[in-house]
Automatic annotation (TrEMBL), chain A:
Naturally occurring in which organism (per UniProt): Thalassospira indica
Name used for this protein in its record: DUF3445 domain-containing protein
Domain of life of the organism encoding this protein: Bacteria
Phylogenetic placement of the source organism: Bacteria, Pseudomonadati, Pseudomonadota, Alphaproteobacteria, Rhodospirillales
From TrEMBL, chain B:
Every FAD-binding FR-type domain range: 5-110
InterPro entries assigned: 2Fe-2S_ferredoxin-like_sf, 2Fe-2S_ferredoxin-type, 2Fe2S_fd_BS, Beta-grasp_dom_sf, DmmA-like_N, FAD-bd_FR_type, FNR_nucleotide-bd, MRET
Domain 2Fe-2S ferredoxin-type, residue spans: 234-321
Top-level taxonomy: Bacteria, Pseudomonadati, Pseudomonadota, Alphaproteobacteria, Rhodospirillales
Record protein name field: Oxidoreductase
Stored Pfam families: DmmA-like_N, Fer2
PROSITE patterns the record matches: 2FE2S_FER_1, 2FE2S_FER_2, FAD_FR
Cofactor: FMN
Keywords noted in UniProt: 2Fe-2S, Flavoprotein, FMN, Iron, Iron-sulfur, Metal-binding, Oxidoreductase
SUPFAM superfamilies per the UniProt record, alphabetical: 2Fe-2S ferredoxin-like, Ferredoxin reductase-like, C-terminal NADP-linked domain, Riboflavin synthase domain-like
Protein's organism: Thalassospira indica
Highest taxon in the source lineage: Bacteria
Length: 346, 321
């Protein structure tokens, strides 16, 4: 099946939308009617044809538009892509993983030919056709992490492993939910998670770190995370807060269905072979409330999750200003019927 | 799900007698496929089907991390151990099919280092051979100091001297030579990281000397794999599975759990990685912990156990498995 790539924007006129056929494949993040933190990590096996879990790196109708938005962010702020000097090997590991995976999973879109260290890469949707020497950065236009990071949906942090901890020593982060690579770079696992409420007390981070430190090569894992965003804006960085913060004032009971977007991160974890670093892709999916409620199970369940959300989380996720009207609006889609287990629509 | 559940089928492509106590084994993928890339210091777990007993031992990869057509390991024969090295030496021949895990690295180079200082004792040389290949290719300075009992037991020294020249030095007990750690560690530029792999006493001396000279702990790295010790057989009750198992004298508790078909996580099989940590439901007796994972307080509490290297003596041990 060939993907029809959409011409759309994540800023200005916000022309982003999901095609009707794209809605059921959204990674809805709530397997139950209530939400609380959990480590919720599972193997990143290929799962369910047509779902975002089918391939190693999901490519969907928003691919080309997302890559254009990334280029705009990087042109304005090159600090969104940074790698400490010892992370070059990890950059090559990342490039190899993406190229090998995409060429295997989407042969009609991507092609990789390897002749020893001499590699030929064709990315048809972005009209890229390059030959380079694997491991030799002078044969690429930029750092290997930036080169491939401009061709794969989602943000990518690369974590160095040493001293029994993980360190955020490289990343290409242009579509973040209110955190900053520039602020976090060089921090360890506990430092960059410091602002998260409740989870420290629950021991979530200790368990997650232990799991990640022993992540085996060839056995990636995944989890879903979520927040809400006003307007389909990918770049909700602290650096650009003045641009998106005021959007929250614009939410009314009349426009809430089109304004508020469920923002889901499909996070995956990969052990990289030559650097022993961990690649942490954070793929963001956006869906307007009006689109979410086209699936009756999701509308029902989202009402219950939002209604019962702990106050600390309402505040941490930045929902306070419009949370009551959102719960009220969602209640019209909750007929009180039971919901089926799991995240997929009925 | 554990690393050793995802095994790679390989064929033994070569067996080389390096000296009277060390053999090198080379593996290729049975289909001729490329093997996974890895980083210097990584190990694989080799599965051995030894006359009805399934053994799994970890061995450091010594082949080049940049070549994926084959892997090489070296095995030192230990006649007083549980039998894995003896099996490798006596039973494994070229052409034999075996299974290995994907590489795991618990001893990787710190890529921030301005210089890598490597100290090896005996068979502890193997992870450094791959690490030197990696450091050489990355263009980061390194030095290897290699202690062996005798010239004839200093495996690979000749080829390392040929490849890396003055970067490697060897010290043989029978020549009255030894590494002066104080001098060696005192004369390193700031930004050097030291790595040690060898007998326990050697690791302790390097760690203590570095500490006394003011080295930051984060610049001192050691590989501390343990072979599971042999001992008296003992009984264990697995609470979730609802079964009793017997751990044989030369078997590890982990191997006995696996043999019973009960699921258990594991990775290094040497008491270092923490994957197999298990809750102790009841313990009337003494756990011989043997691992490098639990702290003193946890050991004393008898509420956790590392089945890969720990043994038990007493009336009853019940685990949450």
């Amino acid at each position: 099946m060939t993907i029809q790539f959409k011409d759309e924007s994540f800023r200005g006129d916000f022309s982003y939308a999901n095609s009707p056929s794209n809605i059921p494949r959204f990674p809805f993040p709530f397997p139950e009617d209530e939400y609380m933190y959990s480590t919720n990590i599972e193997p990143h096996h290929a799962a369910r044809t047509g779902s975002p879990f089918e391939n190693a790196f999901d490519v969907d109708e928003h691919y080309v538009a997302e890559m254009k938005d990334r280029a705009l962010v990087l042109a304005e702020d090159p600090g969104r892509c940074q790698a400490l000097p010892h992370m070059e090997t990890a950059g090559w590991d990342f490039l190899e993983l993406v190229m090998v995976s995409k060429a295997r999973d989407y042969p009609d879109l991507f092609k990789l030919t390897m002749d020893g260290d001499r590699w030929h890469w064709i990315n048809t949707p972005l009209q890229i056709d390059d030959t380079f020497t694997f491991g030799d950065s002078s044969t690429l236009p930029c750092h290997p992490m930036e080169y491939i990071g401009r061709q794969v949906q989602g943000d990518h942090a690369i974590l160095d492993q040493r001293d029994g901890n993980l360190w955020m020593d490289a990343g290409i982060i242009t579509a973040q939910a209110d955190w900053s690579l520039d602020f976090d770079i060089g921090m360890n696992f506990f430092e960059w998670h410091a602002p998260v409420p409740l989870a420290h007390e629950l021991g979530v981070f200790q368990r997650a770190l232990k799991f990640l430190l022993t992540l085996p090569q060839g056995q990636p894992s995944r989890r879903l995370n979520w927040t809400l965003t006003v307007n389909p804006r990918l770049d909700t960085s602290p650096e650009n807060y003045p641009k998106w913060g005021p959007d929250r004032m614009t939410v009314t009971p009349e426009n809430i269905g089109e304004k508020i977007h469920l923002r889901v991160e499909l996070q995956t974890f990969w052990r990289l072979p030559r650097s022993n670093a961990i690649l942490f892709p954070i793929r963001t999916y956006l869906m307007a409330m009006n689109e979410v409620v086209t699936q009756p199970k999701w509308g029902r369940r989202l009402h219950r999750v939002m209604r019962d959300l702990r106050p600390e989380l309402v505040e941490y996720k930045g929902l306070s200003r419009y949370h009551p009207i959102l719960v009220e609006w969602l209640s019209q889609f909750d007929d009180g019927a039971p919901t089926s287990p799991g995240i997929f629509p009925d | 799900m554990s690393a050793s559940d995802h095994l790679i089928p390989v064929v033994v492509s070569n067996v080389v007698e390096v000296n009277p106590i060390i053999k090198r084994f080379e593996f290729k993928h049975v289909n001729g496929d490329e093997l996974p890339a890895f980083s210097g210091g990584a190990h694989i777990v080799v599965e051995m089907l030894d006359d009805g007993t399934k053994r799994k031992n970890p061995y450091s990869l010594m082949s080049s991390p940049f070549e994926r057509d084959q892997y090489a390991i070296s095995v030192r024969r230990d006649d007083t151990g549980r039998g894995g090295s003896k099996f490798m030496h006596e039973q494994v021949r070229p052409g034999m099919q075996m299974k290995i895990s994907a590489p795991v690295n618990l001893f990787s180079l710190d890529l921030r280092a301005r210089k890598h200082l490597m100290i090896a004792g005996g068979i502890g040389i193997t992870p450094f051979i791959a690490q030197m290949t990696q450091a050489d290719k990355l263009g980061v300075p390194f030095e290897l100091h290699y202690a062996a009992r005798s010239v004839s037991q200093a495996a690979y020294m000749d080829s390392l001297a040929d490849r890396f020249g003055d970067h490697v030095s060897c010290y043989c007990d029978d020549q009255g030579e030894s590494v002066d750690l104080e001098v060696l560690l005192s004369n390193q530029p700031l930004g050097t990281h030291v790595y040690v792999c060898g007998p326990k006493g050697m690791i302790e001396r390097v760690v203590e000397t570095a500490s006394s000279l003011g080295w930051p702990a984060a610049h001192v790295h050691f590989e501390h794999f343990l072979a599971p010790p042999v001992g008296e057989p003992f009984e264990v009750h697995l609470a979730k599975a609802g079964i009793d198992i017997t751990v044989g004298a030369e078997q590890s508790l982990l191997e006995a759990v696996e043999a019973s078909g009960t699921p258990i996580n594991c990775m290094c099989r040497g008491g270092a990685c923490g994957q197999c940590e298990t809750v102790v439901v009841a313990c009337d007796g003494d756990i011989m912990h043997n691992d490098h994972w639990l702290d003193e307080e946890q050991r004393a509490a008898k509420q956790r156990i590392m089945p890969c290297v720990s043994r038990f003596r007493g009336k009853r041990l019940e685990l949450d498995l």
